[in-house]
């Protein structure tokens, strides 16, 4: 990398003035960010020779991302994103993330990598900085055309990484950077990526040993893979794998061993052993109860990384054979979100709730049938009908009244309040209310209204006129057809990213 030291000026203790000649940020950073920056200079001292670290731009469970400026040999100053990985990340995991970026990155809307610094167990991945806005801030003002392009470019990135046998596993808007003015897109964050059986990323193959290897659950019949599944929703009980939350299996450095992780104690498998002697079927199969046999079963382990609301049904049910189709599902959830104007669309605290939410949209019978196709038994105590996607999205956009509700007029009191009509419409338009009462499955309105880019409207009709201007009155059937194929419950028939790019929705691109 052609970089020379740029900065001798250090961060002051009383809050430093940070300004870049590009006018990025000229304000003081908060004290805690300042402390983090000082810490980063301390643990990876080489950074100070190259970068002036300006701000923290992202913080997740596994990393902190900083904005840094470097002076290039030719005199230009360039901005970089510095991703500082948590020191407990497994070395192979880190190396695999880097290899994904170096092999597949830098083209086709996939972020590239410039350099990597390491001191002891601290690793900093340096990438070109891409300015971007959070989807939640812009979703309210996106036009249909903008949505179409966004999904097209996301699918391009997916096709590209899938060609290399990379499964990203954490496709969501936060990991797909979008610069609205320059129309640039970049897929980031390979921190959870896994390889397909024939992956070209060597280090992803090495990760297999780090994962808890999926093993058959004792006494499991193909279609009867239930383990303790406390019914978390009142209306719909799904019987599938344990809802126990686990950390994305391979992202953390297993504290004690690098070898296969210890299996659970013997005692828990005593009862199922008897059960198996008695036959493979337990007492609760096809009911909404969880029997003692199932209660005592070991937890089945399969890759389950990602964010619940974006997880594919085969991930939620811990299907051991997961492929690139899981990323396509997540792209479908993003499209659903953008077409309905709701972000996040599914908001679930655990996998069972997430699966129930999927059923409220895609239908319970359909979900059960698809799960059967990939070898999982899902039981739902009540039938949830499949929704028509256009009706659903238009209803959520406030373009048509909810089928089972009257339109609630805007309350008079709100007319003069500081709340905008856009906000009110969202709060008062009867939203899609799933028949099973899982109404909380949809984004809570408060969060939505806080973060959306709101514009003042004089009336509901002005709001509708603006929506029409953005093309929301003429969303073609192709959009919902593609959505339907992205959200195919069965990964075997789900459209691939390469096929999706050939969809009639994109013929002119
Ligand atoms: P994590 O594993 O912690 O989620 P990510 O790689 O997703 O780390 O980065 C976290 C956030 O940092 C991203 O959501 C994005 O906002 C920001 N970020 C990451 N890489 C870049 C980049 N190259 N340019 C600009 N911002 C970035
Ligand atoms: Mg991320
Ligand atoms: Zn059972």
Give me the secondary-structure topology.
Elements: E1 3-4, H1 31-43, H2 46-50, E2 51-59, E3 63-72, E4 77-85, H3 91-104, E5 115-119, E6 122-128, H4 135-138, H5 144-163, E7 166-167, E8 176-179, E9 184-187, E10 194-195, H6 202-206, H7 270-278, H8 292-295, H9 313-316, H10 325-340, H11 351-362, H12 364-373, H13 389-396, H14 421-428, H15 445-451, H16 460-469, H17 477-486, H18 497-501
Antiparallel strand pairs: 1-3, 2-3, 3-4, 4-6, 5-6, 7-10, 8-9
Helix pairs in contact: 5-10, 10-17, 11-12
The structure holds adenosine-5'-diphosphate, magnesium ion and zinc ion.
Q: Would you write up a description of this structure?
A:
- By secondary structure, this protein is α+β, with helices and mostly antiparallel strands.
- The protein contains 18 helices and 10 strands.
- It has helices at 31-43, 46-50, 91-104, 135-138, 144-163, 202-206, 270-278, 292-295, 313-316, 325-340, 351-362, 364-373, 389-396, 421-428, 445-451, 460-469, 477-486, 497-501, and strands at 3-4, 51-59, 63-72, 77-85, 115-119, 122-128, 166-167, 176-179, 184-187, 194-195.
- The strands form 3 sheets. Strands 1, 2, 3, 4, 5 and 6 form a 6-stranded antiparallel beta sheet that branches. It has a two-stranded antiparallel sheet with strand order 7-10. Strands 8-9 form a two-stranded antiparallel sheet.
- The longest helix is centred in the first third of the chain and has 20 residues, at 144-163.
- The protein is globular and about 65 Å long.
- Mean pLDDT is 78; it is low at 4-26, 213-249, 254-279 and 406-455.
- The chain binds adenosine-5'-diphosphate (ADP), magnesium ion and zinc ion (ZN).
- The site of adenosine-5'-diphosphate has 19 residues, from strand 2, strand 3, strand 4 and strand 6.
